[in-house]
Amino acid sequence: MKWICQSLLALLAATTSFTAHAQQPMKWPGGKKAAIVLTYDDALASQLDVAIPQLRKFKLTGTFFLTGNITEGQMLQWRKAADDGMELANHSLYHPCSERVYPNNRQYYSENYDVNTMIKEVGMMNKLLFGIDGKRQRTYAFPCSQSLVGGVDYTPALQQSGLIKYARSGGDSTAIIIRFDTLQLYKIPSWPVNYQPTGERLIDFATRTLEENGLGIFMFHGVGGDYIITPGEAHEQLLAWLAAHSQDVWVATFQEVMDYVTHAPKK
């Protein structure tokens, strides 16, 4: 899984930019000037061991896109995280990816899926998540930031299914959302954080988001361990910066922020 995700993130960073330019700035709640969403993919042990304790330390929340690859003991830990305000979100049951980045997992090649199979898998993951936190509304992150299965984009079917409220995609370090009138709610961009970033680099993205009066969404994987690692110290430096700038920066879960965005008044 490690090099699979790294290969796709490198491809996305090289080819895709989602930064838009606003006509009217967003009016964020409480007089704040920007919003940050901290998201974490793949239900990794380091997220339970490092990221969540750090979030608790600074009284911040994040969104965790889980797959079905979790143990019963981890389910109890994820339940506690949900009780603490973390959002448990859907990342599909088996995380299918293109055969270009899945060399030895033919059964999980997205090319071998069809739309109906993918939608059923998302629905099954929703049921697993319901068993953990008892919630029914879910957000979603496309595995490997890919929306094609069998050569067909399953985004329209996902939207029509009613299983998912909003879906996060990929992007790069310029993926600061500024224009909200044209934002696609099932292709919401984010910055896939990789290559052992420093705390300064993470804070730079948050600072630019604040300067743009925008929305910045981080996509983390491992924190202090696992793969596509963000060092624990760098992650903590970002959280400390966000806590210190809480008067200006709203940090909330993906669903909370997107619920606000879809109903917010503009300046």
From TrEMBL:
One of its GO terms (molecular function) is hydrolase activity, acting on carbon-nitrogen (but not peptide) bonds. Residues 34-252 form the NodB homology domain. InterPro entries: Glyco_hydro/deAcase_b/a-brl (IPR011330), NODB_dom (IPR002509), Polysacch_Deacetylase (IPR051398). Residues 1-22 form the signal peptide. It comes from the Bacteria. GO terms for biological process: carbohydrate metabolic process. Keywords: Signal. SUPFAM superfamilies: Glycoside hydrolase/deacetylase. This is Polysaccharide deacetylase family protein.
